[in-house]
Amino acid sequence: MLYLTQLIYILKGQEEVFHQFEAMAIPTILKYNGRLTLRVRPEKTSIIESNIDVPYEIHLVEFDTQEDFENFKTDEGRKNFLHLKDQSIKSSFLIQGKRIT
């Protein structure tokens, strides 16, 4: 199992464009044995401590395999709306982890 955490920073005024991108990108995850397990839009008032800028959204995603994730990234349909991502996202951090039991 592949576990990913993504911190997403949006360009000011591009929130609607980002929402359009997400409306198409999130269903694509399912095509490749992936699941969006948590999607959070943190409020500054909910942050107890931070040494980084607060992201617009935080996503927790899992894929069955690394290959599934690679296939998701190269999906032909996804490529058709990547311009929305480029237009709306200032930066993002993708953190790969593993489940510790």
How many strands appear in the DSSP assignment?
Answer: 4
Query: Please, how many domains?
Result: 1
Which assembly state applies to the chains in this document?
Answer: single chain
Q: In one word, what is the shape?
A: flat
Q: What name does the CATH topology carry?
A: Alpha-Beta Plaits
The CATH architecture would be: 2-Layer Sandwich
Structural class: alpha+beta
Major sheet: 4 strands, antiparallel
- The average pLDDT value, as a whole number, equals 95
Radius of gyration over alpha carbons? 14 Å
- Strand share of the residues? 25-35%
The H/E string reads: EHEEHHHE
Helix content: 25-40%
Residue windows where pLDDT falls under 50 for at least 5 positions: none
Number of helices, counting only DSSP H or I runs of 4 residues or more: 4
Q: Report how far the terminal alpha carbons are from each other.
A: 13 Å
- What is the CATH first-level class name? Alpha Beta
Spatially, the strands of the biggest sheet line up as 2-3-1-4
